[in-house]
Amino acid sequence: MLVSTNTWNTKNRPRLLSILLLFSLSISWFTLSLAFTTTPTIIENPRRTNTAITRTTAILSSASPITASATSSAIKTVSLPFTEYYTASSTLNAPVLFLHGLLGSKRNFASLAKSLGKQLQTQRTIYGVDLRNHGKLDRIMECVKKYAVHN
Amino acid sequence: MALDVQHFLQEQNINQVIIVAHSMGGKVAQALALLQPDLVQGLVVLDMAPVSYQTDEPHWKAVTNILHTLHSIPVIAGETTKSDVDKALRSAVPDPALRQFCLTNWNSKTNEWAIPIHKIVNELDTLAGFDLQQQSTTSTTLKYHGDTFFIYGGQSKFVRHAHVETIASYFPNHMLTTIRGAGHWVHAEAPDDTIALLKRYLDR
Questions:
Q1: Which CATH number does B2-51+130-202 carry?
Q2: What is the ipTM of this complex?
Q3: CB proximity A104 to B under 8 Å
């Protein structure tokens, strides 16, 4: 933990790193997105950018479901279906929660989450949830399975 | 959506969580971290920036096109089959892997969509946005001071250099890493690299 604190609080080396970052981004600039089938070959070292940039722009005030969730109690929450992909042997460390993207579901992270749980040195329980309006097939399939078992 | 996640944490008696979130989930997670920082011990965002995407940005337009196409495909519940939908999608979504991903939401038992496509289509504008309205009357920018790790695909445009300033303003303790060969679905396209980075973050 001491080591980690030092690592994350280093404040004096962002300039060069951000230049490198801009460079790498400019490369990606010209490549098309949605290249769904490409396999990655190179992985870069994490780049630290701790520059504290003060942003004076006031936050826009138009309504959004994300905002509304925290600002108004009128929006009803739904209970999200979840799966515990890995159960930690101790509850000392904060658990990990995976959230999927648009048209996705918790199943998208199932194998990655299981594998990660086994590999972690810090024991953490790992959860995945289906976000609102997503992943409902999972529950349907579970019902089908239960039905099949009962009959 | 962020409140749904907060509700889940309460249900599970989780006081503090580390969230790893992709795309739309990444927006939800960033919103939760900014609005309820005490609940979030750490945050890893896979290929998403805390910005509003505009309808004329090609990468977001591609997403909305897919959703609109899915919505426009006539479905007769119980009759339309998965391969019918697959065929209808072919011209709008030529990539078979992406089509397959869309079709994970098709219920082949009942032959209908498993998710409410129309609701998602109606929400597209708000999903594109990132407008965090503050409860307080102060106009200071929200900040999340926890360690925030952005992993993005080098081939994707969802996180761009123009977003770095905004990222820094919300997340002063952030780190950015690119997986160069990967696109938007970093964890699917580069699972080993993603796990290695997550391990480094979670075991630090």
A1: 3.40.50.1820
A2: 0.95
A3: yes
